[in-house]
Structure formats: C-alpha cells, structure tokens
C-alpha cells in the first residue's frame, strides 16, 4: 500500500515533491545535469542506505519519506542521532571528504530516493560552481544542526529531561500553547536509542508523564495537552 503514495518522476525537473531545498531549486543548467545522473528508486522500510565505517557509493537525496541516522556506541548500543524528513541529502560529507560514513542511515517506511554515484557527483561539483555552493551550504547546516542536537542532549541532566526535550522537538513548528497532536511511529526501544537510555526507562517515564497528564496516547498519535507544562521539566 505504501508504494502507491509515491510516483517516481522521470527527472528532478518534473518532480512533484519540490520543497525549499538547495537541490530542489537549482538553476536550469545544473538541475539538468543532476537530473541526467543516477536514478530514482523506491526503497522499502528498514533498507540501509549508508553504513557507519564504510565508504559510500554515492549520495542519496530523500525525495519523499523518512530515514534515521544512527551510530553504534562502544558498548554495542545503537544511538539514533536524527530522523530526517523529505529532501535531505545523505552521504554528502563522506563523499566530499573521501572518508567512511560517520553514521548508518536506514529508511523508515517506504522512501523515494535519488541516487548519484560518487565519482559522477564529485565531477559535477568540480565543474559547476552553483552546485558546489549549494553543497557547501548543506554541509554548513549539517555541522550547525549536529552541534545543536549534541548541545541539547548534554544540557539535559536526566533521562526525564532528555525525553521531554525529544517530545517537544516534535512540536517545534507549533508556536502556540495549545493541545498538540503529532504522529508517533517510534517504539520505546527507538525512543531510548534517541536519548541514550534503556527501553525500560522510557516505558517508565512515559507512564509517569501520562499519569501526570503531561501527555496521552490516542492510537499512534501523541497528544501534548499543555506544552508549557512539559517544558517545565525539560
């Protein structure tokens, strides 16, 4: 059923998933050259695009769908660093630097992906200044976002604070303090991997937040009745 939501376009210029992104709004010439490279494919959920410690074959542009970025800690635990939304460009830093991928990237549900082989993309960067500038901007934003995410986790002194900050981050685009409803497709194990805790701890903390009426679940929807109250413990 999920595949039917995505219709793979013949090229990037006719794609219906255009969003505010450097690689979605390139000028005609570089966009045409990017379109001619690689291919667009549909990936099922739980497909590995990049593997931590391995040299990537190329870059992956997430046209539609989501993917998670994770690393393996020294104790063997998996830590989820980020969940991407549509129009993310994955593998850019590793391809440009020629170093192994610092993270593992796995799809969450069906995704439409544009893949461009490593050497083809590097050759395009060398010959097109506009594409090179767009790549530099994306790399700069990636560094700033990574620092911000790590900073937020370091500031949180307890698992309670980390969990509250994670839940609040899902409502970051909502400016008013009203009842907020967001889809929650993550298991307690995945949430634990996002905050560097255990599944048992997340289950206990979620139950405690429900008891205090800070959150409630309606099916797969997370409801935050009062964001200010949740912010108070974050």
Keyphrases for this structure?
Arc Repressor Mutant, subunit A, 3-stranded antiparallel sheet, 2 domains, elongated, Jelly Rolls, 6-stranded antiparallel sheet, alpha+beta, 234 residues
Question: Can you describe this structure?
Answer:
The chain is an alpha+beta fold and 234 residues long. It is built from 8 helices and 9 strands. It has helices at 28-36, 92-97, 118-127, 129-155, 159-169, 188-195, 199-211, 227-231; strands at residues 39-43, 48-50, 58-72, 78-84, 89-90, 104-117, 180-183, 216-218, 221-224. The strands form 2 sheets. Strands 1, 2, 3, 4, 5 and 6 form a 6-stranded antiparallel sheet that branches. A 3-stranded antiparallel sheet has the order 7-9-8, with no helix packed on it. The model is unreliable at 1-5 (pLDDT under 50).
- Average pLDDT reading: 81
Count of helical regions: 8
Radius of gyration computed on alpha carbons: 19 Å
Can you give the helix content as a percent range? 25-40%
Question: How many E-type strands?
Answer: 9
Main sheet, how many strands, which sense, barrel?
6 strands, antiparallel
CATH superfamily of the largest domain: Jelly Rolls
> Could you please say which CATH topology of the largest domain applies here?
Jelly Rolls
CATH class of the largest domain: Mainly Beta
């Amino acid at each position: 059923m999920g595949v039917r939501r995505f219709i793979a376009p013949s090229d990037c210029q006719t794609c219906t998933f255009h969003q505010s992104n450097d690689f979605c709004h390139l000028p005609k010439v570089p966009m045409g050259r990017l379109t001619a490279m690689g291919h667009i494919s549909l990936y099922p959920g739980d497909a590995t695009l990049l593997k931590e410690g391995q040299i990537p074959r190329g870059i992956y542009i997430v046209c539609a769908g989501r993917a998670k970025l994770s690393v393996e800690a020294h104790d063997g635990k998996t830590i989820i660093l980020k969940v991407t939304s549509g129009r993310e460009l994955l593998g850019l830093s590793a391809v440009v630097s020629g170093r192994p991928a610092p993270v593992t990237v796995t799809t969450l549900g069906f995704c439409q992906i544009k893949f461009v082989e490593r050497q083809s993309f590097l050759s395009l960067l060398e010959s097109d200044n506009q594409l090179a500038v767009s790549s530099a901007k994306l790399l700069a934003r990636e560094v700033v976002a990574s620092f911000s995410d790590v900073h937020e986790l370091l500031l949180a002194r307890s698992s309670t604070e980390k969990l509250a900050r994670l839940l609040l981050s899902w409502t970051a685009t909502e400016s008013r303090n009203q009842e907020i409803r967001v889809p929650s497709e993550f298991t307690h194990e995945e949430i634990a991997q996002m905050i560097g805790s255990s599944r048992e701890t997340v289950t206990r903390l979620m139950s405690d937040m429900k008891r205090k009426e800070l959150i409630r679940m309606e099916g797969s929807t997370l409801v935050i009745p009062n964001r200010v109250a949740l912010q108070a413990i974050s």
